[in-house]
């Protein structure tokens, strides 16, 4: 069985921090064993946002997808540009009514998989929320988001993506 399928089963109901810990489980062969595709992200796009944590083509593509889809509010364009054609369901949804803003904290790559840890602002800010344990979580200031993307090595485009989102309050926000 492919290790990523095992991780998908393990990841159900895991917090953002726990899912980040599972990232190693999701990795395939070592990065040096996986051929890198040509650069997908246009040089002009790299000037629009902070790519300092993206030192490989796959990392740059992952961040370009997130920045274009959410920070720039161009979800359809991001899916068309950075996903393997046909890998995203037709129509693909329109996204949330308010485009969230991603602040990237960490980018990890193993083999054909990239994991991004981000703080996201934009949805439900100022609302009270309940934790997964049923206790009061406080007033929402944003979300901790872990994005896991598997890349097609022949095209350098995203083939599959999983994510987990955990609401944060001043009391629960621990990675500023």
Essential attributes:
176 residues; alpha+beta; Nuclear Transport Factor 2, Chain: A; 4-stranded antiparallel sheet; two-stranded antiparallel sheet; 6 helices; 26% helix; disordered N terminus
Tell me what the structure shows:
With 176 residues, the chain is an alpha+beta fold. The chain has one domain (3-168): Nuclear Transport Factor 2, Chain: A, CATH 3.10.450. It contains six helices and six strands. The strands form two sheets. It has a four-stranded antiparallel β-sheet. A two-stranded antiparallel ribbon has the order 3-4. Helix 5 (57-71) packs antiparallel against helix 6 (75-82). It is globular, with a radius of gyration of 16 Å. The termini are far apart. Residues 1-14, 16-22 and 24-32 have low confidence and may be disordered.
